[in-house]
Every structure is written in structure tokens, then in C-alpha cells.
Hints:
Shape: extended
Number of domains: 4
CATH superfamily of the largest domain: Longin domain
Subcellular location: Membrane; Nucleus
Distance between the termini: 60 Å
Strand content: 5-15%
Strand order of the largest sheet: 2-1-5-4-3-6
CATH class of the largest domain: Alpha Beta
Helix content: 40-55%
Number of helices: 19
Keywords: Coiled coil, Membrane, Nucleus, Transcription, Transcription regulation, Transmembrane, Transmembrane helix
Number of strands: 14
Structural class: alpha+beta
CATH architecture of the largest domain: 2-Layer Sandwich
Coiled coil: 381-408
Largest sheet: 6 strands, mixed
Radius of gyration: 43 Å
CATH topology of the largest domain: Beta-Lactamase
Transmembrane segments: 211-228, 248-271, 276-293, 299-317
GO molecular function, one term: transcription coactivator activity
Oligomer: single chain
Amino acid sequence: MIVYCMLARLPDGMVLCDCTDVKEEDEQRKESKKLMKALLRRASILGNRRCVVRGAYNSIYTSSSLNLICLSLCLSNYAPVLAFTFNEQLMNEFIRVHSPSAEEQIKRAHRPYVFLSFDPVMQSLRNRFNSSTSFQAKLNISDLTYELRCNPPLIIHPKDLLGGSGNDGFPRGTSNGTPSTWRQKTSPPVCIGGTSHDGSSEYQLEPLRPFHIGFVGITIILGLVSFYRGVHTLNMQTIEEYEGPSLFHAFAFLIEFAFQCLQVILVSFLLPLKSVLGHTSTAFIVLTSLSLWDVREVVLTFVTFLCGCLMGSWIIPHRRLELRCPRLYPIQGRRMDPLTAASDPSHNLRVGMNSVVNIRSNMESLMRHLSLSSVDKDDSLESKEKYLAAFQQKLQKISNDVRELESSLNALSVPLNSLFLLGSMGHLAQDPSSDKNALYPKLIQSYSWLDQLKEFAGVGMGIISLNSIKRTLVTSAMGRKTRRGFAATHNPPPDTVNAILMAMDRSLNDLTITNIFRPYGSNAVVQLALGRVLRALVIFRGLMIESVVIKGFGESNCDEETGHLNPWKQSNFKVFRKVTENANAAMLHYYSPVMPDLAVRSFMTWLHSYVDLFSKPCSRCGSHLFGLKPPTWRDFRDLSAYHDECKPTW
């Protein structure tokens, strides 16, 4: 939890506001506040970089922006990501309350605690972070987590702020001294002598440039050649009549190889006296090149001389340093740092499973101890105490494992990178399997989308109710008189359905209704014949078309074995099966629950356009056949004939 927080001015560290609701302060809290004040006196050195100071019980997290620095004192087990999120939100709230001249007000502040009126806002935000995990579940900390991994906070050791040691694990003592590790510059210093100006390990060598890598590679090759020739010359000295390079040349080759290796090491690693060693290696390589002038090729000697001079006199001394990105917490052994543990569900799962295994093992050991060991009244006091001590020790182990299991379960209860809490489905995000990890974010996205759709629909309904849509200029009284009544589509009388169908039979010449029967209650099943081209079986539910089956003119709708009607049997011809698919698509296209009689009439008109199925050419390609099939598609608007491959794609 967050114990205490304060806001201060970055250049001089003057406190602008802090929490005043802290009633009782123990020694640990007092020592931590001293450390925070010592940190503020050196706030100008930090700049806008996040910092962490860790103790045994409490931790301090700092964030700064716009000449404003926020310090929060939290318990050591509090998630660092949440602490930095609290700092960011607190600074944003301060700037929002005092906008638009927040930066000018901070600069004009002439005494401490000028903005003490901001204290209720600080307490409210701190209580929201400390209250429960419901508020933390609404935080979007994924961006901040990624930023902390790419640019870790600066680790400040407590001994660099105060001297001695306190009860909190923080050092205590005077804070007048300025440790050497605080004398760091904002830009990387030039490496003079191989180390940084402050002698700390916060710096590292800048990455090698391409031409640096080229010279390093050439130096390695030249060194291997010198080593080979030196060893070869030493071996040839055993031959009596050998007239080649002498023993002096052999040692010159090996010395040259040694200093070339030294140059490669100086380029690769940060070592003390780097510049001095670089110039020394250059001098020795020049001397060995001159001594080997008469036994080595001129070109090879010139390349060795040039690479040695550039490496030792230019590349090694002028390779700059840069700030090292430290870890938020050092990893000791296999222990994971709190930042990674808070954002890695698999770590919490492993800890929980190990705790369950330990609990089962310790419980089995406890039951075995109770069943095999016994204490009688006649036993001595020492044996009774040993029995009780062993029993208490096993209970303590079980209690520790249960506490660890509860902590891991609490860490898994709410996924911190989610915007919504979806109950038990939140545990899907903890699954270490890669093919299931993406399920919970997709559920979150769907839930967010549906929530926004519901909100927009409510807003749109309110706007529509305020602005009624009228397509005519008639008055409301006249509209009520002339308004057309809607047909009851759910359960209309059979006579109404028959009347509508017979009216369509009379209006369409080639479309004939051969039979209307109701084998499934009051819903009608209609058999149609379109000229001598095809037959259709249309199943109704009320006045709504449920299904359409198209067959050839000579095919039957009855089962051959039983002789009963089979409305689900498809045609034996591929052409009519394709027309059946298009008819079902037309049925869905003309669907209208408000005016079902118009929908049925539109569908029948569309179906009537198949009267010239085998005689009408395609409206696009002009052919009667395409792939041995006639144009089986009819446009929904102008009833034009198309092949499936030629139909428009709008």
C-alpha cells in the first residue's frame, strides 16, 4: 500500500504539498521521511528520470515532470508499476487543478507548502489505490510496464543519501556529505583513462560503429597472421641450414600479436588506463613493424602500421561512454524481480502450484507424526516438550505455505492489464499456454465494443425520440386515419393466407399454385409450378417464408419409398440445386416482418423471372451456357439474368 506521498519543486526540492492525515509515525516511517528529504536536496541531479530507493520495509518511488517531482513511500511488497502509476496520476491531477498556469505557479512559489489545499485530492487518490483491487483493475498500465522495461528506473542506494543504518533498512546519520556517485553528468562523458569521471558503474561503452567493427576484424586477422609466422619462425630455428627470419623476428611477431590482442580487448571492454594502454600498444606495434620491414611484405607492413595507429590513437581513446540502464531490482539466483513477477502470471502460477504441493507434503508429514508418535501421562516432561515442538514446527510450515498460496492467488485474482473485470474469465489471462493467452484480451475488446454500442444506442434513441421522422406533410390526425394497418404475421388465419396466395396466383400468368395443404398444423406448404420449367415447394410460418426447395418440372416432392411428402429432399439436377440456393438467398433478402404480404409478393415476382431459365442469355457475357450451366442468378432489383461467375459483386 501507499503510506505517504509529497509533491515538490524539482530545481530546488522545496516541498509544495504532502499528505497530512498520517496520525501515528513509528521509527521506520520517520527514517523513511528523512531519506525522502535527503533525496529532495539532490532532486536537481535526477532530472526527469524515475528513481527507486529500496529498504527492508519501505520503498520510495520518484517521478518528475514540468519542474514537479512526486515522491511516494510504499511498502516493499507493493507493485512498482502501481507506485509509478500513482505518481503519474497525482502529477496530472495537480497540473489539471492548477491549469492553465500550473508551471508558472510552481516557479512563483516562495515558501514551502503553498499548495496545501491540494491535500484532499492527494488523500482521495491514495485511498483509491489502497482501497481494493477493483480500482486497480480499471488502470491501463500496459504502456507504463513496457516503458519501465525499456527504460528501467535509476537505482539509488540508501548509503549514498545518509550514513549508518536505520531500523527500516535505510541508512541513518548526517546528510551533509555529497557522495561521489551523485556527481554524474547529464550527457555521457568522454572516456579519459578508461573510467568515467565519477568512478561509478552507471556507464558503459557506446555501441561499436560499422567502421570500428571493420578495423577490429582486420586487427584480429593481422594478429592471427603474426602469431602463425612467429610460431613458424621458432620451429624453423631448429634447422641448422635455415637462412630465413631469425629468433629476433620470431619474438617481434609474437610481441606484435600480443599488443594487437590488447587493442581488441581495450575496444571491447571498459578498463582503467584505457587511453594510456592504447597509445602504448600503438608505439610497440610501430616498433615491431619497423623491425620486421626486411622479412615481411610491404603492403602487409603498411596495413599493420595503419590499423595499429588508428586503433590505439583514435578508436580506443575516443570511444564515448553512455548511461547504463539498470534493473529495477537485481535478480538473485532464480528469484524474479517484483516488476516482472507482477506482470508475469506464469510466475504466480508456479508459486501457487509449488505452495499446494508443499501443503500436501507437510500435511502428510503432520498426520504421520500424529499417528506414529504418542505421548502418555507417564512420559517425562522433556519428551512432551519435544513432541509439542515438532508439532508446532510442522504447523508453522503449513501456515507459511498457506500464506504464500493466498498471496499468489491474490496476485491472480484481477489481471492488471485489463480495463474490465469479467469474473472468473479473468483467469484465462493467466494461462501460460500461448494459444490461449489471446482469448481474454479478445473478450475484453468484445465487452468494450458492446458496452460502447449500448451507450451509443441509448444516445441515438434519445436523439431520435426528440426529432420524429415524417415523410409526408399530412397532419397527425389524418395520418391516423389513413395509416395502413400491419398484418399479424405470427398466427394469421388460414383463410387470410389462402386469399393472399390466390391473389398472387391470379396476378402472375405462368406461376400456378397447384396445391396448398397444412401437414404441420396451421402453417401452409405450397406447391408451385412455373410453366414447364420447374416446380417449387414453399413452406410458410404464418405469412413468413421459412424454406424454399426448387426441383425440375418432372421431379416429385414425395418420398419414393413411403409416398409421403418430403420437403427437405433436394433436386437431382445441379442446376435446380443452385436455383434453390439463390431462392433461399432471395427469401432472406425480401424478408420484412412489418409488411409480410409485400415480402411474399416480391419473392413470387422474383421467382417468376425464372420462366425463361433455359432461354434467356447472361446479361454480362451474352452467353446461354457457362461451364455447361445456364444463368441461374436473378438480380434482386431489375431481375436480370447472370451466371454465378458473371453476377455483380455489389
